[in-house]
Amino acid sequence: MAGGLRRLVKETAVYGLSSIVGRFLNWMLVPMYTRVLAGTGEYGIVTNLYGWTALLLVLLTYGMETGFFRFINKKEERAPERVYASVLYCLMGSSALFAACVFAALPAISGAMGYADHPEFVGMMAGIVAVDAFCCVPFAYLRYQGKAWRFAGIKLANIGLNIFLNIFFLVVCPWLHARCPGAVDWFYRPDYGVGYVFVANVFTTLFTLVALVPDMLPGLRAKADGALLRQILRYSFPILLLGIAGIFNQTADKILFPFLFADKAYANEQLGIYGACFKIAVVMVMFTQAFRYAYEPFIFARNKSGDNKEAYAEVMKYFIIFALLIFLGVMFYLDILKYFVGEAYYPGLRVVPIVMLGELFFGIYFNLSLWYKLIDETKWGAYFSAIGCVATVAIIVLFAPVYGYMACAWASFFCNLLMMLLSYFVGQRKYPVAYDLRSALVYGCLAAALYAAGMCVPIESEWLRLGYRTLLLGLYVAFLLRRDLRGVIKGLRKR
């Protein structure tokens, strides 16, 4: 078990280069967007369209990533390339069909989404989503092969190119146009503004597709198996609904918000403020995502070897501990982190603690969800997803017109909490795991007490306030080291 956990920690660190570090680098674009784009409304367009992109990406992969790992790790599977080929060809066809349908009806779709003046925004989004959905399969194959460094390298190269192109189009080109128009007039339009965010993404998506060609070849050369594909689809479909619930909690607000207000310009301005401040809370999402990349292959491989429940409980314990540490770290240093967005966006900072706790609940829910994946009863994921989606939409539709984006933040919080509780109680009946609830309660209460102490004590001086909160954060770390990490550190030193 210890060896498996060490492997999980190692792979989480490597995948973190592309997930945590990569998202952090993209996050660093937020200061530029909130200062360079023409008002909060333009950033609202970015928030809205990338909300659609995230949701569509889940729909177009329809749970096949998890299905891929489940079937390629089955004891009786003797031809992993057969699984790879079946999934690869399936997603290739569905992605191409999606792109063709969108481009065929582009004017109508763009008008319905509120982008009749810029249908190319929707067209670029469709192309990006189609290629990204297809590329998720070779990325999953890299994870299966344990090629974490190649996985991270391609992801980071993609992100680096995206950052370069964003800076080029939004900062360098305007500067050149003001001083030497002839140098950029042949391709650059000063009034296009936010459109260049999507142009940059198109180029980076094509780069990733080309970079993954060598990793696609084993699947393209192998023969797909129709019977096997049907099994994978049956297994994966409920996971699609689970994925929709997960991403819908993060995107329903960004997708639905503009439709709930008669004044679309006002809606985009408010959505821009909310979307920028939401990015501060993305630190918790980054941690959960990096954990997921290593954890999903780990649980199926561990299930294959028969060594499982004790490891799952221990992993859950440390996930909660470090997620709470991240929550406290972000909240205690929010006075510094707020400078990553423009001053016009500061009113939205109040959503940060709500969104972070909601993402913590979803991270726990993801860890709990292993039970129905391992016993092949993914229908439960579908049930929880449906309940969560209904709760999210109901809260947003009923309360967002009155309370604005605060209702969106609370919708995510309550939906994730509800799904977490449902998965735990049903899971303990179907696939009991002795989770360390005592530790979760102890650390939860400690974090709550420290958070209250840090936020409720009025200290005028910013430096004294930061020093006081740093001391509180140090108390949490000291407690963690004394209670749970001392033995682990000693064990590692002996090795």
UniProtKB/TrEMBL annotation:
**Bilayer topology annotation:** Multi-pass membrane protein
**Highest rank taxon of the organism:** Bacteria
| Gene Ontology CC, one term | plasma membrane
The record's section on InterPro entries has:
MATE_fam, Poly_Biosynth_Transport
| Pfam families assigned to the protein according to its UniProt record, in alphabetical order | MatE
Keyword Membrane included in the entry's annotation: yes
Q: Which UniProt keywords are listed?
A: Cell membrane, Membrane, Transmembrane, Transmembrane helix
Q: Show the GO MF annotations.
A: antiporter activity; xenobiotic transmembrane transporter activity
Segments crossing the lipid bilayer: 12-29, 49-71, 83-109, 121-144, 156-177, 197-220, 232-251, 271-295, 315-336, 348-368, 380-403, 409-427, 439-460, 466-485
Say yes or no: keyword Transmembrane helix present: yes
| Compartments it resides in | Cell membrane
What is the name attached to this protein's record? Polysaccharide biosynthesis C-terminal domain-containing protein
Q: Which organism is it from?
A: Candidatus Parabacteroides intestinigallinarum
